[in-house]
Write a structure and sequence with these properties.
Layout: H1 2-32, H2 42-49, H3 60-119
Helix pairs in contact: 1-3
Length: 120
Amino acid sequence: MRQIYLYLVSFVALMILVAGLIQTVMAVADFFIPQTYYVPGPAEIYNRYRVPDGERQMPEEIIEQEIEFEKEQARTSSLASRYSSLRRAAAYVVVALPVWLYHWRKIQQEGTASGSKDQV
C-alpha cells in the first residue's frame, strides 16, 4: 500500500512539474513575442467624446492624449499579466520539484532495500 501511495504522489508531482515547466517556457516566450495592444478607432473615439448638444467638441490634443493613455494602460496591464503568469509557472515548478524528488528517492530507497532482502 505504501508503494502505491509513493508512486501516486510521485506521478501527480511529476505531472504538475511538467505542466509548470511548459507554462514557464510559454511565459518566458511571451516576453520575446511582440504584443499587440487595443487602440480605439475613430468612430469609437467620436462616440465616446461627442457632446449631446453638438456645439462643443473635445479638442484633438486631448483625444490624442487619451489614446496614448489607453495604449500605456494596455501595455502596463499586459506586462503585469505576463509577470503574473511567469510567477505562477515558477511556483508550480518550485513546489512540485521537491515533492517529486522526495517521493522518487523514497521509491528508489525502498526498491534497493527490498532488492537486497531478496538476495539474502
